[in-house]
Amino acid sequence: xxxNKTTRHEHDIGKKNRFIGLVQGGKSIRAAGRLVGMKPAxxxxxxxxxxxxxxxxxxxxxxxxxKVTPRMERxxxxxxxxxxxxxxxxxxxxxxxxxxxTSVRNTLAAHGYHRRVARRVPYINPDQTRKRKDWxxxxxxxxxxxxxxxxxxxxxxxxxGDHRGKVYVTRCAKEENDKDCLVPTFKQxxxxxxxxxxxxxxxxxxxxxLEYPGGKGGGMNTERYISQVLSRALGxxxxxxxxxxxxxxxxxxxAPSHRAIATLKWLSNHGxxxxxxxxxSPDLNPIEPVWHELKRIIRARRxxxxxxxxxxxxxxxxxxxxxxxxxDKYIDSMPERVQAVLAAEGGHTRY
Length: 351
What we know:
single chain, 3 domains, 5-stranded mixed β-sheet, 15 helices, 46% helix
């Protein structure tokens, strides 16, 4: 009789040390574990181990003596950290003729290093890092109820052939080239739309397909932002929330049309308070992952849009399909996002 094997996941040294630092900084074991992505039981066991041994490293185990000397081991780690993008084979050749690529890989893995696809994130300069950290400190004490009253907004481009991930289909071998089993691609497609939308805890706001001529001077400017977004969509939605007895505050990023004097005057004249948002910080706006969900729904359509009109229709239908409960989970993560940006000293977070 075949027995089921239990798969164990080994957390790397860096994650373990971050967890210990958070607990020593005053976080509960459960809260610290959640911030670094560690299960409660694992977090408790790691803290108990640290209390007993004073370290988070694994204790020595029996087995065949290692071929990699301590000197080689240090060289592997130093070279890997110095040149992050160097392939393993090149890294191996630069260290010694007496070490194999497999040994280098195993050595790195033992220290928590693995070859991974690099995340693409917005560039954050030192001044922006400071502002992100300051913003986190200002909002560290905000409650879930306060975050639930924020109207989060953003713009997003959607274009034909927007297939960043793999698309899986169910087919047999002879159906490989059937129409329903193919994903059409568009060479440098210029067919795209920009949409604006907003969300608040428990509600989806309106989705607006922005209209502008394009070309030089034809993009989104202050006049179009006020007329198409603020007057047409935000204003009515804000008043609707007020009538329901809520106390909303509006969030927008630092785009030029958002920071313009005319925009700020319009918001002030209509009694719409603003929530300050740090620069280059999509990870601190819970509507960002909603865009990923929206595009996922569009990509999953059986018949992909092939024109601007079809793309607009697909975007509107996808917005209607989004579940409010799925949106709420991103809004509910705001306290954790604040803690994450503080833990990163204003740097990039996992969100």
